[in-house]
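Async update (no meeting this week)

Hi team, since we skipped the sync, here's where things stand on the single-chain job. The sequence we agreed to prioritize is pasted below, unchanged from the tracker. I ran it this morning and attached the output directly underneath so nobody has to dig for it. Comments welcome in thread, and please keep replies under the output.
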Amino acid sequence: MKHYRKELWMHVPSRRAFVNITPQVETCLTESGIREGLLLCNAMHITASVFINDDEAGLHRDFERWLERLAPEKPYTQYDHNGAEDNADAHLKRTIMGREVLVAVTAGRLDLGPWERIFYGEFDGKRRKRILIKIIGE
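Output:
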């Protein structure tokens, strides 16, 4: 069984954003040479997420509004975690959106549904963060 590991680095200039990372993940799969197996993609920071959904701007705005209703950024004083930091809402948003995705690899391609794309969700941006890509298979 072959294995492949790579880190992608993200630097989102805004506090929150959704970034389609499917092309970068596909590049990793090509580099790996693996044709059949599994691909794990996960955010290596507790205020960022990796998830699968549709690449549609209206849906992303819906996510933003929904997450902000569930875990509003302000007032910062509403969270016990906030003190030296102001990112308690980002921790909660990450929990809701998830840490990772696992995607089947079939015939050297990501086995995604017709509209599925892999996204990096940033909830406390303005600094560099890592995404781990790990692929195993033949």
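Quick observations from my side:
The radius of gyration is 16 Å.
The chain has one domain: 2-137.
Reply here if anything looks off.
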